[in-house]
Amino acid sequence: MAKRKMILDLDTGIDDSLAIAYALGAPDVDLIGIIGSYGNVVVEAGGQNSLKILELLGHTDIPVYLGESHSSTSDHFDRMQVSADIHGENGIGQVDLPAPKRAIEKESGVDFLIDSVHKYGKDLTLVPTGPMTNLAAALKKAPEIATEIGNMTFMGGALTVPGNVTAYAEANINQDAEAANAVLTSPMHSTMVGLDVTLRTLLTKKETQQWRDLGTEAGEKFADIVDYYIQAYVDVNDNLGGCALHDPLAVGVALDPSFVTTIDLNMVVNYNKETYGRTIGDDNRLNEPTNVKVSVAVDKDRYLKTFMEYLTNLFKQN
After folding, report:
1. Which ranges carry the Inosine/uridine-preferring nucleoside hydrolase domain (predicted)?
2. Residue 265 belongs to what H/E stretch?
3. How does pLDDT run across 181-223, given as a tens digit for each residue?
4. Residue 273: helix, strand or coil by DSSP?
5. Is 123 a catalytic residue?
6. How many other CB atoms are found less than 10 A from the CB of residue 103?
7. Which member of 11, 16, 176, 227 is catalytic?
8. Which of 42, 50, 63, 262 has the CA that lies 20 to 30 A from 134?
């Protein structure tokens, strides 16, 4: 049992599933729970996908909680068509996995997060890879967790490259820019793993074939899931040559910050109509101590080697 604990806050689509696998395959952390969010799919579907992936990987011991079902400024969530195009209607590449034996927990994801910070303190790492709605709600309810938690590393944002849903906005931040701004302007320290680095960290069918060749159920299913993702990337942006490892890179950086080069910055998230979702330096706090490390370069070869080692070893066992 590792001293370090991790919670994933996911809108479980394909790269979120890879993030789960990375956290389970890493030898130096215990995944203690998953909080569901909305984004790639609706929150209930994401929770079920998390349970299915955990069961596929032999970890029915890990609980899944549901977080908020829509942004902090709306009363409902409409899934974007591009999410279905990239992740499949079911969120996991149209691959059919059995209904999970374990049920979603009754406690709310926000309360689970707050309780876990109080319990584990600096030993706890949180990795949100969807909207920041759950974390913003937790900070509003229990502001003390901002300085009690050990590590918060999130997938989202774009500083040195354009967004992927608008010229300014990355998809996770765009779902709830107000929540993201509340988090980034809070006392909480965080590391941003955005499009600046995730679009450089790619997986191809060469790697998924290695999983297929294992002859295990997990290897075959993950190969099928990710091959769908790779093809979706070809359809949307065939210049990349593979699929971006957005969410698992955030997990990797949370555990080993040396994968990336960062700059220290105080950040804001714009939520005006013209630049909604833009993550940018805060010109009102230029001379104040910084609380965000923004990833701007990545050691992609060393990361991919570690990624393949962790996941391939995990899939061998399942």
Report:
1. 6-304
2. strand 260-265
3. 999 999 999 999 999 999 999 999 999 999 999 999 999 999 9
4. coil
5. no
6. 11
7. 11
8. 262
Dump pLDDT digits (tens) for 169-178. Answer: 999 999 999 9
Burial annotation 248-257 (CB, 10 A radius, 16+ → b, else e): bbbbbbbbee
3-state DSSP call for residue 236? helix
Would you say the pTM of this structure is higher than 0.85? Answer: yes
Angle, helices 133-141 vs 109-120, to 10°: value is 60
Q: Structure tokens of 10?
A: 């996911």
> Can you give the C-alpha Rg of the chain in angstroms?
18
| Distance separating alpha carbons of residues 204 and 220, to the nearest angstrom | 15
Integer angstrom CA distances of residue 57 from 86, 102, 190, 234, 290: 23, 14, 29, 28, 39
Long-range contacts of 49-52 (CB under 8 A, 24+ apart): 49/12, 49/13, 49/16, 49/17, 49/90, 49/91, 49/92, 50/10, 50/12, 50/16, 50/20, 51/100, 51/102, 51/104, 52/92, 52/97, 52/98, 52/99, 52/100
